[in-house]
Amino acid sequence: MNTCSITKLDSFMIDFLEIKPSKQLEFLNSTINSSITYFKTAYIFIDETNITDIKLLFDNGYNSIINIGYEFVAKIHSMLNILQISDTSQTNKFKYEESAQILFGSGIFLNIFNDLALNIFNEKINEYMNMIKILDTINENIFTKLCNDKNIFSLNSKINNFNHYINELILQMCKIKLILKYTYIHI
């Protein structure tokens, strides 16, 4: 798995502070729509391929979600937090707070997807340890097939979890969109 790092958002947040609250809300709604569009493309689909292709699909999906998905979640949380302060309407403040509570926090987001990747790495270590223990007692071809089957099952499970979290993120974005649907700022 390639290493990737999350996006720096300092300039984004500073620039966001400088625009009027009505434009901030407009930009938030646009970002939510863009995030829904992105997450709709982030699913990992597999077919009857070999284990290497499935691993590559997962790695590519993971790298994309850590870079792009994290950026969307962190930006939306930042915008909601800034709007809670910049928008003077008490009613709107409750909407922003409710929206922020619906969406995975950016730390939780990272933990969810990093745990999926870490589990694959740990399973690989266990696989190698098991190989060392039983190579002397079992036919190597049978053992290799069992390991491949186990890896395929494990990756399918991780991909299902990955896609489940994508579903959750899209649901969260849609709920936020509904909450903010009738939010107006008269500034």
Q: What oligomeric state is this?
A: single chain
Specify the biggest β-sheet: none
Mean pLDDT: 84
Helices, by number, come to 6
Low-confidence stretches: none
The SSE string, one letter per element, is HHHHHH
Share in β-strands: under 5%
- Total strands: 0
Radius of gyration: 21 Å
Q: Keyphrases for this structure?
A:
187 residues; 79% helix; 6 helices; mainly alpha
Describe the structure.
The protein has 187 residues and is an all-alpha fold. It has one domain. It has six helices and no strands. The chain has helices spanning 10-17, 21-41, 51-86, 90-102, 106-134, 140-180. Helix 2 (21-41) packs antiparallel against helix 3 (51-86). The model has no long low-confidence stretch (mean pLDDT 84).
Summarize this structure briefly.
This protein has 187 residues and is mostly helical.
Question: How is the secondary structure organized here?
Answer:
Elements: H1 10-17, H2 21-41, H3 51-86, H4 90-102, H5 106-134, H6 140-180
Helix pairs in contact: 1-3, 2-3, 2-6, 3-4, 3-5, 3-6, 4-6, 5-6
